Amino acid sequence: MSLTTMSDGKVFRFEEESQSDRLARKSKETPFFPIAIGVCSLAVGYGVYMFKHRGKMSPSVYLMHLRVGAQGAAVASLTVGLIYTMVNEHILKKK
Questions:
Q1: Strand positions, DSSP E, the chain
Q2: Burial letters for 45-55: b for 16+ Cβ neighbours within 10 Å, e otherwise?
Q3: How far is 84 from 88, CA to CA, in rounded Å?
Q4: What is the pLDDT of residue 27?
């Protein structure tokens, strides 16, 4: 536990959390967080594999296609998360 003293004399206590504790906390707060990490890891692995087996396509064209695909995946994951939040807060009334 660490103590931080402000200039006005107030003392704040906080605990430093490890990376595994932070990952566990984020996973509980937002269930899409570990899913997003897994999907990102799979996308990176797929991109590396396909880059090695791209055939005669130039690297710049392949990387441009990969960038557009990654942006599409990011927009799709944000849309799914937004729909999930809206359903929980407005339709099922969970807070």
A1: 2-5, 11-14
A2: eebeeeeeeee
A3: 6
A4: 79
The C-alpha atoms of residue 57 and residue 22 are separated, in whole angstroms, by 41
Name the residue with tokens 């990490």.
Answer: 37
* Average pLDDT over every residue of 46-60: 85
- Amino acid identity of residue 40, one-letter, is C
Phi, psi angles (nearest 5°) of residue 70: -65, -40
Calpha distance 10→34 (Å, rounded): 37
- Cα distance between residue 86 and residue 8, in whole Å: 42
Confidence band for 28, pLDDT divided at 50, 70 and 90: confident
Alpha-carbon gap, residue 47 to 54, rounded angstroms: 10
